[in-house]
């Protein structure tokens, strides 16, 4: 060590190593290898069924863990299943005590867990110590609270069941907490697979579960690679899959779980914009970039990796940023003075290098400060690319490394356009001292989490999750908890009989109308697109018949082009989502008023389908009432202000999806149609709706009501025709953000599978039949929840 | 800090009366305090465009400030060296109504020999024992301080200009500066008129500080902004920038008498102003946090702040001072612990 006199000249920081003795000792004690944690016990590792875990900073093996086989997954799911009845029946207060004990035990082991996390993952000890582990404890405390309150705050809800949870390597223990805490609070049991690169803190957590007295089987940990994960996802004993990881794997999981009835939440990749307006605190924003992309080596799904800087201040901002980059210290994650640690594994380092090389090839300007890197281990210096354009590869793909790319914009509109010019929608960071501009931008950015004058802030009380191909579902807060609950009635719905999909004939009906002497004027039911009645693109129509088979009229046979046109019309009607909720309520009331005025006509139509007069009248009345119901809700489905940090407003806003596809049930042709349409448009969505295939004339009659009720063009688009092809086109359409489908099990499976194209939010009937006349099953908050997504906007304040 | 015998650099924008006033002051300076030539911040014309549109986001700056002490850690010999460095940057201060020549003498003796000899030896600094940066007193205490420090090379800093409120009439405040300089102060810690900042009267603030700088002559001017009174960080930034434009050699947070004194967010704001000023002019201006810094840990945090935000030159007493009275005692105890491995008693260290 240099003498004090020498240090007085250099004023270097010197080494500041965090002691790792206890962790080394623990690893040594487990030198024989780790088993899985199943049913409260660790299994004995089996030779040849293990893999090595490495410390990426020292390039050395630190542990051997078990590669989970499908038998291991079976055993874990079985244990979770066996524990489910007991755990879900455990009173909320007792579950709260268990979660509280977990939180307490994590705090008592905080330094051990921090050091272990840094050794396993390569993240700086400063981060694991000050960010990861405190947030883990906070998550368990918060959800201990939810366990206490769940019965009163979520009446008539039940746990989903056995949850299969797969977590990534970037925040190993924190992601575990985000998955396990809400699941347990809600009464579910869990099989969790940690990431292959970073399984150690999950195993340490298993020890904590044992130590804290959690009942056996409630939490099971199976280690392994993607094959283990796939076995878990596909396991028939799993009721819900929760996954955090790459968009590619998320897409695969969506396809694999399609039609299984498993509830699914996905938290996927991102390429989140970091917008710096000219009136921002530029030095503050520079620190924001540090926290955005040089936090956790940039291996953060919500990293602000895409800088958008207003052109007039770009040169100054980049100069400040480059100067700041020079003071970032890269090195041993266990050194307390290190800002940027090790990349998790050589394969990830290779990917970063390749993408950076690609960026240079494509002509972007690379800047790396003169940063010293350790000789060994997986390290990459903080990197900034300027002169990047949306067409650059590095502006498009998620690098998942310490690499920021920077572009400029001229106006706020252009900033928003650039921000949204991505397939992802996880997070956004907005820097401006003008509250009007900041909140306007926050509202317009398509992202699940928006940080104003801040970045990468997390709290158990706020929801986290993405729009678009960043996934669906939320973690944290009330909205996150909902992912682990289902309405109690949903579980007991009867299964629908499997009926083959109806094939519609375009041939003329063979019945003889008899050359009636007083021929009524022929009515032509068309499609309804963009506020206009339009002929089907196909030029074909099909005959609609009553229950006895007698022709009732004809409807157009819509095809994929009609869907395309309808989606385009819906996309143009964005003003509907921006209108006041009061305004939308007025329109819905007007629809109800006009529907009521024509009640006899609709009842007549229903009679013709074979409904009894009493039932026909009841269905029309119910449709009017349901429309009123959602008109009432339009301005009352409020968001929340979450209690996160002091001097912060964390707004959980309910935003419409945008364009929704709605595929209606065959039964209750009027009420089913209204039950799907009204919540969707009340929340500000625009709908492309495929009505009952059997009785579409109720829907085509309905557009006359829409026409007379001030419903703006494009808000409701009706395409009649064969359900499955139309549903498939909607499911595959990249501009349809969400899809509701009521129909057969096979139909549900097909729609869910096709929805993987853009990872749209789907809500399907799972081949179960609900009672549309029931106030519990046919309407309510569950519909509104599925008609919206929650955007959390963090607004720190203070002067 | 040594005195400047060469003419102050002029950029032509400063009032021409500066020169004559300066010469007057210089002619009465005691010879002993006139040191080698040294470049000083010449200031600029008042340039409101450098600060008019400045934005400082409190929450953002608080987040940065909160991690300043957690992102860096110095241990063992490094920590000892950093603490010794802190000693050399301390303006050992007494600014109390009951100050007497005897009290000031005691303080000066501590300034000369801030560390026990056995500790100095153990730290390997026997051939160059540390001294504090300066001794800071009221104008009437300058003479006893100068006397007690003669031959030590430690400058005497004097507060002036109606410290701490700064609301006496300007001629009296300028006269007070001249008095302190004549008594032998090498550095003058002036207080600005906070009202000028609160009312946005930048020209008035500029003129005031420029006049004070003239009155200082070769003595270095440290501008105390009274940040606890300015309240908003935007005000802090603007006041910093105007003080530098008017030729301040140092900008200093507080008098130590406000409700809130040197905080990390305030310091960070001033440092950003200082850095921006450096970018725009190429000049280096010093920084002095004062009030509220009491512990060795505070010293390490502020040194880290300087190193991170401004770099190595600002780790030296010519560009960094800590206004403190009790901090030294804590540093001594920490250094003794470093040397002996045993926790120290304050009674074993000479009181200031």
UniProtKB/TrEMBL annotation, chain A:
Pfam families: Aldedh. Signal peptide: none annotated. One of its GO terms (molecular function) is oxidoreductase activity, acting on the aldehyde or oxo group of donors, NAD or NADP as acceptor. It comes from the Bacteria. The keyword Oxidoreductase applies. The keyword Oxidoreductase applies. InterPro entries: Ald_DH/histidinol_DH, Ald_DH_C, Ald_DH_CS_GLU, Ald_DH_N, Aldehyde_DH, Aldehyde_DH_dom. Residues 48-486, 543-762 form the Aldehyde dehydrogenase domain. The active site is at residue 267. Keywords: Oxidation, Oxidoreductase. Belongs to the aldehyde dehydrogenase family. This is Aldehyde dehydrogenase family protein. It comes from Lichenifustis flavocetrariae.
UniProtKB/TrEMBL annotation, chain B:
Keywords: Lyase, Schiff base. Pathway: Carbohydrate degradation; 2-deoxy-D-ribose 1-phosphate degradation; D-glyceraldehyde 3-phosphate and acetaldehyde from 2-deoxy-alpha-D-ribose 1-phosphate: step 2/2. GO terms for biological process: carbohydrate catabolic process; deoxyribonucleotide catabolic process. Residues 1-20 are annotated as: Disordered. GO terms for cellular component: cytoplasm. It is an enzyme of class 4 (lyase). GO terms for molecular function: deoxyribose-phosphate aldolase activity. InterPro entries: Aldolase_TIM, DeoC, DeoC/FbaB/LacD_aldolase. Residues 1-13 have a biased composition (Polar residues). Its EC number is 4.1.2.4. It catalyses: 2-deoxy-D-ribose 5-phosphate = D-glyceraldehyde 3-phosphate + acetaldehyde. Belongs to the DeoC/FbaB aldolase family. DeoC type 2 subfamily. This is Deoxyribose-phosphate aldolase. It comes from Lichenifustis flavocetrariae.
């Amino acid at each position: 060590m240099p003498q004090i006199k020498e240090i007085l000249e250099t004023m270097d920081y010197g080494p500041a190593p965090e002691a790792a003795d206890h962790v080394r000792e623990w690893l040594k004690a487990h030198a024989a290898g780790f088993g899985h944690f199943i049913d409260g016990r660790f299994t004995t590792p089996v030779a040849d069924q293990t893999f090595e875990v490495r410390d990426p900073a020292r390039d050395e093996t630190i542990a051997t863990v078990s590669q989970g086989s499908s038998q291991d997954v079976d055993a874990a799911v079985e244990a979770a299943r066996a524990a489910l009845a007991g755990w879900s029946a455990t009173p909320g207060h007792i579950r709260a005590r268990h979660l509280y004990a977990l939180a307490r035990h994590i705090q008592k082991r905080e330094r051990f867990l921090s050091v272990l996390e840094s050794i396993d993952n390569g993240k700086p000890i400063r981060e694991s110590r000050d960010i990861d582990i405190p947030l883990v404890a906070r998550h368990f405390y918060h959800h201990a609270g939810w366990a206490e309150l769940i019965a009163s705050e979520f009446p008539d809800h039940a746990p989903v069941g056995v949850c299969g949870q797969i977590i990534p390597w970037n925040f190993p223990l924190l992601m575990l907490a985000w998955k396990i805490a809400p699941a347990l609070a809600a009464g579910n049991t869990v099989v969790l697979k940690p990431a292959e690169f970073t399984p150690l803190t999950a195993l340490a957590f298993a020890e904590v579960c044992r130590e804290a007295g959690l009942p056996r089987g409630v939490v099971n940990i199976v280690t392994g690679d993607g094959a283990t994960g796939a076995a878990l996802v596909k396991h028939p004993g799993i009721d819900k899959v929760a996954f955090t990881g790459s968009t590619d794997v998320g897409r695969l999981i969506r396809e694999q779980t399609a039609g299984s009835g498993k509830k699914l939440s996905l938290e996927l990749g991102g390429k989140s914009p970091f917008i710096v307006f000219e009136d921002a605190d530029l030095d503050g924003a520079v620190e924001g970039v540090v926290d955005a992309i040089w936090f956790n080596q940039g291996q953060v799904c919500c990293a602000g990796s895409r800088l958008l800087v207003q052109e007039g201040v770009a040169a100054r901002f980049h100069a400040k940023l480059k100067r700041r980059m020079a003071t970032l210290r890269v090195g041993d994650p266990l050194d307390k003075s290190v800002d940027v640690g090790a990349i998790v594994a050589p394969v990830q380092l290779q990917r970063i290098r390749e993408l950076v090389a690609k960026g240079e090839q494509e002509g972007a300007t690379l800047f790396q400060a003169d940063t010293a890197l350790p000789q060994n281990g997986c390290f990459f210096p903080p990197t900034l690319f300027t002169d990047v354009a949306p067409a650059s590869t590095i502006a498009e793909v998620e690098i998942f490394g310490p690499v920021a790319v920077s572009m400029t914009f001229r106006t706020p509109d252009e900033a928003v356009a650039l921000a949204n010019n991505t397939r992802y929608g996880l997070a956004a960071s907005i820097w401006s001292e003008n509250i009007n501009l900041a909140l306007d931008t926050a509202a317009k950015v398509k992202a699940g989490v928006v940080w104003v004058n801040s970045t990468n802030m997390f709290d158990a009380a706020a929801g986290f999750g993405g729009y678009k191909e960043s996934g669906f579902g939320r973690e944290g807060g009330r909205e996150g908890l909902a992912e682990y609950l289902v309405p109690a009635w949903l579980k007991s719905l009867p299964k629908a009989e499997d009926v083959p999909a109806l094939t519609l004939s375009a041939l003329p009906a063979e019945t003889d109308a008899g050359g009636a002497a007083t021929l009524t004027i022929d009515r032509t039911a068309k499609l309804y697109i963009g506020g206009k009645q339009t002929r089907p693109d196909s030029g074909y129509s099909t005959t609609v018949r009553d229950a006895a088979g007698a022709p009732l009229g004809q409807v157009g046979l819509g095809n994929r082009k009609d869907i395309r046109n309808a989606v385009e019309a819906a996309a143009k009607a964005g003003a509907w989502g921006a209108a006041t909720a009061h305004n939308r309520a007025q329109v819905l009331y007007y629809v109800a008023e006009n529907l009521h005025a024509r009640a006899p006509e609709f009842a007549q139509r229903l009679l013709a389908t074979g409904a009894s007069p009493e039932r026909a009248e009841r269905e029309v009345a119910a449709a009017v009432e349901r429309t009123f119901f959602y008109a009432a809700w339009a301005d009352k489905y409020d968001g929340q202000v979450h209690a996160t940090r002091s001097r912060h407003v964390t707004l959980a806003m309910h935003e419409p999806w945008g364009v929704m596809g709605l595929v209606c049930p065959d039964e209750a042709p009027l009420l089913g149609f209204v039950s799907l349409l009204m919540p969707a448009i009340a929340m500000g969505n625009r709908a492309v709706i495929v009505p009952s295939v059997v009785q579409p004339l109720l829907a085509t009659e309905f557009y006359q009501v829409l026409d007379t009720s001030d419903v703006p063009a494009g808000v409701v688009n009706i395409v009649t025709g064969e359900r499955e092809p139309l549903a498939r086109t909607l499911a595959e359409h990249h501009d349809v953000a969400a899809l509701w489908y009521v129909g057969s099990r096979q139909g549900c499976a097909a729609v869910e599978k096709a929805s993987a194209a853009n990872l749209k939010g789907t809500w399907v009937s799972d081949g179960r039949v609900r009672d549309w006349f029931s106030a519990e099953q046919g309407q309510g908050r569950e519909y509104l929840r599925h008609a919206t997504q929650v955007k959390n906007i963090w607004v720190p304040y203070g002067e | 800090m040594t005195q400047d015998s060469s003419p102050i650099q002029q950029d032509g924008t400063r009032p021409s009366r500066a020169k004559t006033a300066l010469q007057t002051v210089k002619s009465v300076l005691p010879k002993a305090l006139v040191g080698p030539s040294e470049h000083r911040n010449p200031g600029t014309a008042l340039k409101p465009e450098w600060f008019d549109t400045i934005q400082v986001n409190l929450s953002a700056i608080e987040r940065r400030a909160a991690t300043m002490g957690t992102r860096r850690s110095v241990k063992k010999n490094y920590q000892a060296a950093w603490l010794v460095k802190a000693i050399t940057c301390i303006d050992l201060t007494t600014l109390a109504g009951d100050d007497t020549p005897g009290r000031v003498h005691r303080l000066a003796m501590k300034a000369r020999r801030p560390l026990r000899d056995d500790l100095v030896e153990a730290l390997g600094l026997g051939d160059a024992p540390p001294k504090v940066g300066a001794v800071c007193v009221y104008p009437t205490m300058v003479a006893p301080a100068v006397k007690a420090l003669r031959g030590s090379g430690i400058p005497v800093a004097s507060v002036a200009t109606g410290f701490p409120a700064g609301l006496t009439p300007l001629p009296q405040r300028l006269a007070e500066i001249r008095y302190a300089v004549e008594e032998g102060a090498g550095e003058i810690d002036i207080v600005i008129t906070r009202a000028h900042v609160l009312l946005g009267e930048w020209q008035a603030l500029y003129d005031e500080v420029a006049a004070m700088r003239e009155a200082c002559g070769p003595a270095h001017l440290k501008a105390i902004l009274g940040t606890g009174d300015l309240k908003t960080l935007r005000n802090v930034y603007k006041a910093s920038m105007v003080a530098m434009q008017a030729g301040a050699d140092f900008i200093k947070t507080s008098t130590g008498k406000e409700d809130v004194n040197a905080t990390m967010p305030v310091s960070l704001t001033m440092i950003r102003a200082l850095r921006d000023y450096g970018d725009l002019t190429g000049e280096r201006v010093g920084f002095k946090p004062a009030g509220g810094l009491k512990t060795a840990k505070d010293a390490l945090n502020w040194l880290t702040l300087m190193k991170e935000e401004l770099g190595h030159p600002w780790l030296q007493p010519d560009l960094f001072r800590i206004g403190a009275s009790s901090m030294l005692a804590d540093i001594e105890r920490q250094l003794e612990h470093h040397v002996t491995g045993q926790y120290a008693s304050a009674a074993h260290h000479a009181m200031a």
